[in-house]
């Protein structure tokens, strides 16, 4: 449980056509960014997208033209990434990201955006829908 705001995003890594990925990343449609293969480009997209969504959720804002994915530029910081807050005089955010391999045809990408003073996500528990509902009802 977090004492400060956090943002979490999980995405199933379904195939997307290369032109759409490049459009969302803000790169020219005719070139693959940084010489990545289509598979690498797709993994890069989902890593960036989940970090972006977790950051927007932590900030408490939504996706709109003032915050395009193409302008989102988290800085590597060891095993994590660091990104500034949209709010003046607020500390930066730390984003942790990982691939989740499940026994399904496609994997998932997970990102957690937290304040630096929050503990890192050392353990992530994946719940199926029934267990999630059961635990939620226990809270009521």
Termini distance? 17 Å
Helical residues, percent: 25-40%
Number of helices: 3
Stretches where pLDDT falls below 50 for ≥5 residues? none
Radius of gyration: 16 Å
Q: Which H/E pattern describes the elements?
A: EHHEEEEH
Strand ordering within the main sheet: 1-5-4-3-2
Which of globular, elongated, flat, extended, rod-shaped describes the shape?
Answer: globular
Largest sheet features: 5 strands, antiparallel
Number of strands: 5
Secondary structural class:
alpha+beta
Mean pLDDT: 81
Strand content: 15-25%
Description:
The protein has a five-stranded antiparallel sheet. The radius of gyration is 16 Å and the shape is globular. It is built from three helices and five strands; from the N terminus they run E-H-H-E-E-E-E-H. Strand 4 and strand 5 (108-114) form a beta hairpin. It has 140 residues and is of the alpha+beta class.
């Amino acid at each position: 449980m977090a004492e400060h705001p956090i943002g979490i995003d999980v995405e199933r890594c379904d195939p997307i056509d290369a032109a759409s990925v490049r459009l969302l990343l803000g790169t020219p449609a005719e070139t693959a960014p940084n010489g990545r293969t289509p598979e690498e480009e797709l993994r890069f997209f989902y890593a960036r997208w989940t970090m972006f969504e977790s950051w927007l959720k932590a900030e408490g804002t939504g996706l709109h033209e003032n915050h395009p994915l193409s302008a989102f530029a988290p800085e590597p910081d060891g095993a994590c990434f660091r990104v500034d807050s949209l709010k003046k005089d607020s500390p930066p955010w730390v984003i942790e990201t990982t691939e989740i391999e499940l026994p399904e045809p496609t994997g998932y990408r997970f990102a957690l955006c937290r304040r630096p003073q929050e503990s890192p996500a050392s353990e992530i528990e994946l719940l199926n829908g029934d267990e999630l509902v059961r635990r939620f009802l226990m809270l009521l």
